[in-house]
Please model this.
Amino acid sequence: MAKPRTVQMVERLRDLQVSSLDIEGSALVSLDGLIMASSLPPVVEEDRVSAMSAAMLSLGERIAGELGRGVLEQVYVRGQDGYVVLRAVGEEAVLTVLARDTAKLGLLLLDMRRAAEDLANIV
Amino acid sequence: MAKPRTVQMVERLRDLQVSSLDIEGSALVSLDGLIMASSLPPVVEEDRVSAMSAAMLSLGERIAGELGRGVLEQVYVRGQDGYVVLRAVGEEAVLTVLARDTAKLGLLLLDMRRAAEDLANIV
Model:
């Protein structure tokens, strides 16, 4: 019997974290800001991640549109202590990743692209 | 006699565009969303760039703070047709760059860092 989709999604998020040790947590969030699956450290609240993801996705879409950049693909926010990266997963969801400041951005974006493709097939 | 600061700022923005042909336009925006200097193509409205920059900066700061990423350094939005990248210029302003989808992100971020340092000295 196939595993439930939520289990498959969480497993895929955990695989992402195993592949990149600089990833501290990740979540799959629906376009209206609800958590679909997550693998976050205990100090990070799910609700906070989902709310911030939805807000950033909405503004990112508006900016990409208003400034002639086309359909939104990705948003990244870099702070002194690390990154938050968002990437579309199909047309239904967004993958949000929290990474340390030591993360290699090129590798992180590649791993996220692969995870997003897999997750789109599960969602 | 030294050149007026606005002229110096616009010249520095133009230098940035000469260094990276994939940059379509750039603007220096105050933290409250007002244009300080710009070098934008005619089709892009200054007001739109400044409003979007201020909105993204504000949300980026909130997200970096709420999700434990520290002080905001940079935000980038990638659409199918190109990038919008924002970077802090000192504590008073933000440098916003519009780039084509063919831009090499590593080079773009490096050139922006140098421009931001120079602009911080002019502002």
The mean pLDDT of chain B is 93.
